[in-house]
Specification:
By secondary structure, this protein is mainly β. The chain has one domain: Pnp Oxidase, Chain A. It is built from one helix and ten strands, in the order ββββββαββββ. The protein has one helix at about 95-100; strands spanning about 10-15, 20, 25-30, 45, 50-65, 70-90, 120-130, 135-145, 160-165, 175. A hairpin with a 5-residue loop joins strand 7 (about 120-130) and strand 8.
């Protein structure tokens, strides 16, 4: 990896928990089963205005006498969390699913039942490109995906904010190019 200033364009894809995939072999997406990068089950989230990553943690401070004063001796991290904040400018069937809590929708869907679907968990793939169109960073995270806040339907470009909270999986991975 080279150090330097970059402008990064983000692209995001999602596979629902329970969706079937065929690459690298037949399987069902879940915490312990992730589709390959070329599998057709990845759903493009559309136009990404911006994408932010927020790591948080909880820690415990350990103090010890050194010798007469009590000083900070160690810090133990007890909890870790990684969240992706995503601003979309496009409505896909997946975004309608998230917004209205429906069962899975496709481009051919014409009817849905609000609040009839489960919480959306699955695999989020973040691909980031530098200003010269070269792939810079790829991250696969098993996540819970939610709409974060109100979605207004007015005479402006649609704005949908999503939050993806990474959940533990031994298959979570990242790669810098």
């Amino acid at each position: 990896m080279n150090q330097g200033s970059v402008i990064i364009g983000s692209h995001l894809y999602f596979v629902r928990e329970g969706d079937v995939f065929t690459v690298p072999g037949a399987g069902v997406a879940g915490r312990n089963a992730k589709p390959g990068a070329t599998d057709t089950s990845w759903i493009d989230l559309g136009i990404i205005k911006d994408c932010g990553v927020t790591p948080t943690r909880e820690e415990r401070e350990i103090f010890a006498p050194t010798p007469g004063q009590i000083r900070l001796y160690d810090v133990i991290e007890t909890k870790r969390k990684l969240e992706y904040k995503i601003a979309l400018q496009e409505m896909s069937p997946l975004v309608w699913e998230l917004l209205f809590g429906t069962l899975p929708l496709t481009l051919a869907s014409t009817q849905y039942n609000p609040l009839s679907g489960p919480t959306k968990k699955g695999w989020l793939k973040l691909q980031q490109y530098k200003q010269d169109d070269t792939l810079f960073n790829t991250v696969d995270s098993y996540c819970q995906l939610i709409v974060d806040g109100e979605v207004k339907f007015d005479d402006n470009v649609i704005a949908v904010n999503l939050t993806a909270r990474q959940l533990h999986s031994t298959l979570n991975t990242g790669a810098l190019a």
